[in-house]
Amino acid sequence: MPPRIQRHEKIIALVREHGFMPIDGLARALSVTPQTIRRDINHLCEEHILRRYHGGAALGERLENDDFQSQKNKMQSEKAHIADVIAAHIPDNASLFMSIGTTIEAVATALVKNHKNLCIITNNIHVAAIMSGRSDYTVIITSGVVRPLDGGVTGVATVDFINQFKVDYAVLSASGIDQDGSLLDFDYKEVSVMQAMMENARLRYLAVDHSKFGRNALVRMGDITDFSTVFTDRALSAPMREKLEGAGVKWLVAERESVHDA
Fold it and tell me: Which residues are in the HTH deoR-type domain (predicted)?
């Protein structure tokens, strides 16, 4: 196999693994110059395999759909367990914001089993479809532009719509969590929507499986300490536990079904 093709495969693998890779990081990993990496990224962008951002690259359209389907099928039991525990912490008659993502869709599935009289405001048409079958639910879909990939609704109109409400809970996820606790995503429009949900909710629940910790993405949504409770499926690292304890944030490891209070 030609060296250039081998390099392209390694670049794609690194971007898949980390979500976003800076040019300098790819150059170091592959022992080539940044100029070589830029040419490789340009070629892969022309093929819609990658999408170029300032200073690096993320997955392009051709791979995003494959990765979304893979993500949807991956760790289903872990996501379902997280969802069940979140559902146990939401009472009947509550109002909720619910954002984009397969974990949030799992939460929707868990809630419809036995919760009554919920009001759900969501920018996720899959969540709306799951929850609209209940006659005692009020399901409100935000305005905005629908992404064909994952059924997410984003845009300026979406943020304006969200800002009209004040709800009991915001149930959100993130594409990645940096070591310093920064919550990361790839789409600044989606981030703007989630920030509006955070600002207009009395309690904020973060639902993230263990694969999100240490995963890179381009846009900063906020900090893990911005949430009331963090729900995940594996024990957190000691530095992350200390960070949450210092901020008075609870975390719950669904696998062990044990709540930790700071």
Answer: 4-59
Fold of 3-69: Arc Repressor Mutant, subunit A (1.10.10)
Predicted model pTM: 0.78
> What does the pLDDT look like over 4-45, one tens digit per residue?
888 998 898 888 777 788 899 899 999 999 999 999 999 888
To the nearest 10 degrees (0 to 180), the angle between helices 3-18 and 61-73 is: 50
Domain with CATH 3.40.50.1360 in the chain: 74-260
Q: In what helix (H) or strand (E) does residue 244 lie, and over which residues does it extend? A: helix 238-247
Kindly report, residue by residue over 153-208, the tens digit of the pLDDT: 988 999 999 999 999 999 999 988 999 999 998 788 889 999 999 999 999 999 99
State both tokens at 32.
């080539």
The CATH class given to the 74-260 domain equals alpha beta
Tell me how far apart the alpha carbons of residues 173 and 212 are, in angstroms, rounded to a whole number. 9
**DSSP summary character for residue 150:** T
CA angle 162, 167, 172 (to 5 degrees): 70
In the chain, list all ranges with CATH 1.10.10.10. Answer: 3-69
What residues pair up with 258 in beta bridges, in sequence order? 253
State the SS3 of 88-144.
HCCCCCCEEEECCCHHHHHHHHHHHHHCCCCEEEECEHHHHHHHCCCCCCEEEECCC
